[in-house]
């Protein structure tokens, strides 16, 4: 039905029904809901729950799963032997009855109606469990119903390929084509969520996967005996999501006492009742309850996983300076240092480092690149989105390489390579062990971060964006940049500083390569240009795939010894302002500035 529900959609509340919008004469809202379909972004399909083809609802999930099945049938002759993995988080919408669990069961029902085995988790799980299960069970694909840290109104449909990494091109395009070819639900069985309770083709992998995951987690534990004697207390918030039980188990696996849970946020709550926004990346404004509990318990470290537990925020109490919330780039500096240091202790042969890699997305800090130059291991960048990291890890592993650590600046981390997506559960345990080790060295996380920066040079980053509601203006802005000094001539300077390299993944141009062709895949559907400057500045301008924004990322990679942090921050601030003014011309183009 066009209302996006089951055949009984008329029983749903008006907020979920297109008929109520017709009655109210809300034509613009109807067009937005019915005249376009969702497409795969950096995190799969993601949209508000509600009526319409551009929303997450029973019908669009059934249609997406039919398209996925059709594509998998073409790619995998053994689909009916290997099956698919399906997981879900704890999101739900009381007024419509739409929940992640219900959508997961409908996803399973579509597959079961075509006699495809389904490994459906019996309860909500962290997102990393799905890609992990795909690999462990040999499934052809996985689906996770989640909107991660999005507002409570949203939900999503994340698809993983047989290698355990999120799908990317061309699979995403082909699946959407298959969806368009068969929009009518195949049969009444597709609506029957109860099918998962009666079908012999449905299994529940929860116990086996959880046990196996925790066993493999020990590969990231380097100081278990020290952990057992750790006097530090840790506070953990799961942000009303799925992370509580799993972080507790991960701590026990590492030999720690369980972290102290924030009681108001420990249990799943689809309304995210105690936070303004369920995104721990927002900093102290959303960590208030965690910090209050930490003060009360004399716990110096707060760990916060987002609602689907694939991302991790960390805050540390500093003597006389309140609480420091680490950025994703700062945590990556610590985790990169930690993972390589422990690997090196176990691999003293200098030759071994030749097959070691670390990865990050291109808009993230270059600190791993700096480590790589000094330590001799290899570093690579990917396009934004952990799906690109996951696929590259798989390729490198197939060639006999070891990927120690990967990250994206939006607090997404992966230690090791046995899960091919960011993982807040394992990262929380690793951060706790790192903090415990440093405590025994009479250091804390922030002190170690400054030691790293003093050794390798400060890497300070700043992110901003401008809002532009007019797509032609955005295209005009990037066209001007690409023809800044004449046709096909990019800018030569910014803020009076010489630009030494330009990479434009929209056109495939990279001035740093001998053939002037970008190593990264060409992405014609969006704009993204990176500038490397003579004095250590790196800046990227990119459009958002889901919002009317141009995002601006800038980093100052200072030389070792250049440690006047206040001056470096002032120079970075000045450069960011010049970048916006010179290349985006906010006033002339009626752009609204925002700072993150």
UniProtKB/TrEMBL annotation:
It comes from the Eukaryota. GO terms for biological process: glucose metabolic process. Pfam families: PGM_PMM_I, PGM_PMM_II, PGM_PMM_III. SUPFAM superfamilies: Phosphoglucomutase, C-terminal domain, Phosphoglucomutase, first 3 domains. Residues 38-181, 212-317, 328-440 form the Alpha-D-phosphohexomutase alpha/beta/alpha domain. The keyword Cytoplasm applies. GO terms for molecular function: glucose-1,6-bisphosphate synthase activity; intramolecular phosphotransferase activity; magnesium ion binding. It is found in: Cytoplasm. Keywords: Carbohydrate metabolism, Cytoplasm, Glucose metabolism, Isomerase, Magnesium, Metal-binding, Phosphoprotein. InterPro entries: A-D-PHexomutase_a/b/a-I, A-D-PHexomutase_a/b/a-I/II/III, A-D-PHexomutase_a/b/a-II, A-D-PHexomutase_a/b/a-III, A-D-PHexomutase_C_sf, A-D-PHexomutase_CS, Alpha-D-phosphohexomutase_SF. Its cofactor is Mg(2+). GO terms for cellular component: cytoplasm; nucleus. Belongs to the phosphohexose mutase family. PANTHER family: GLUCOSE 1,6-BISPHOSPHATE SYNTHASE, PHOSPHOMANNOMUTASE 45A. This is Phosphoglucomutase 2-like 1. It comes from Takifugu rubripes. The gene is pgm2l1.
């Amino acid at each position: 039905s066009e209302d996006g529900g089951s055949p009984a959609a008329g029983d749903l509340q008006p907020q979920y029904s297109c008929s109520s919008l017709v009655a109210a004469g809300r034509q613009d809202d109807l067009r937005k809901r019915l005249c376009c379909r969702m497409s795969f972004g950096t995190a799969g399909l993601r949209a508000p729950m509600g009526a319409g083809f551009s929303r997450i609802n029973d019908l669009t999930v059934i249609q997406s799963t039919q398209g996925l099945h059709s594509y998998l049938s073409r790619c995998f002759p053994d689909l009916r032997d290997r099956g698919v993995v399906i997981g879900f988080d704890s999101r739900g919408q009381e007024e419509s009855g739409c929940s992640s669990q219900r959508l997961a069961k409908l996803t399973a029902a579509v597959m079961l109606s075509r006699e495809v085995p389904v490994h459906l988790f019996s309860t909500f799980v962290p997102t990393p469990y799905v890609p992990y299960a795909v690999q462990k069970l040999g499934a052809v694909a996985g689906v996770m119903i989640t909107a991660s840290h999005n507002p409570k109104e949203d939900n999503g449909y994340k698809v993983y390929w047989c290698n355990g990494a999120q799908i990317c091109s061309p699979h995403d395009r082909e699946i959407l084509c298959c969806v368009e070819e068969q929009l009518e639900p195949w049969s009444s069985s597709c609506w029957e969520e109860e099918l998962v309770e009666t079908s012999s083709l449905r299994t529940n992998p929860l116990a086996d996967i959880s046990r196996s995951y925790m066993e493999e987690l020990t590969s990231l534990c380097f100081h278990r005996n020290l952990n057992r004697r750790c006097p530090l207390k840790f506070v953990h918030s799961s942000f009303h999501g799925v992370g509580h039980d799993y972080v507790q188990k991960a701590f026990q696996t590492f030999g720690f006492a369980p972290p102290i849970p924030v009681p108001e946020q420990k249990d799943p709550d689809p309304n995210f009742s105690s936070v303004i926004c369920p995104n721990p990346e927002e900093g102290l404004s959303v960590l208030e309850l965690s910090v209050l509990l930490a003060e009360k318990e004399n716990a110096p470290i707060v760990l916060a996983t987002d609602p689907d537990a694939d991302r991790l925020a960390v805050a540390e109490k500093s003597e006389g300076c309140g609480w420091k919330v680490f950025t994703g780039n700062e945590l990556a500096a610590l985790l990169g240092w930690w993972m390589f240091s422990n690997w090196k202790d176990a691999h003293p042969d200098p030759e071994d480092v030749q097959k070691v890699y670390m990865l990050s997305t291109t808009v993230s800090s270059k600190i791993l690149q700096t480590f790589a130059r000094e330590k001799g291991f290899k570093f690579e960048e990917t396009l934004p989105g952990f799906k690109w990291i996951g696929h590259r890890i798989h390729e490198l592993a197939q060639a006999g390489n070891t990927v120690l650590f990967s990250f994206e600046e939006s607090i997404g981390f992966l230690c090791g390579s046995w899960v091919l997506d960011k993982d807040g559960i394992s990262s929380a345990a690793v951060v706790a062990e790192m903090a415990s080790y440093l405590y025994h060295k009479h250091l804390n996380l922030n002190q170690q971060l400054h030691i790293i920066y003093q050794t390798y040079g400060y890497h300070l980053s700043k992110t901003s964006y401008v809002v532009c509601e007019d797509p032609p203006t955005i295209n005009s802005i990037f066209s001007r940049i690409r023809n800044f000094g004449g046709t096909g001539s990019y800018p030569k300077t910014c803020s009076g500083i010489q630009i030494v390299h330009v990479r434009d993944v929209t056109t495939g141009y990279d001035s740093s390569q001998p053939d002037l062709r970008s190593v990264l895949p060409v992405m014609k559907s969006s704009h993204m240009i990176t500038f490397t400057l003579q004095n250590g500045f790196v800046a990227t301008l990119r459009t958002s795939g889901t919002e009317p924004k141009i995002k601006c990322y800038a980093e100052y990679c200072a030389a070792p010894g250049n440690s006047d942090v206040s001056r470096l921050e002032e120079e970075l601030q000045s450069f960011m302002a010049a970048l916006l003014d010179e290349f985006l011309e906010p006033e002339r183009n009626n752009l609204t500035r925002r700072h993150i």
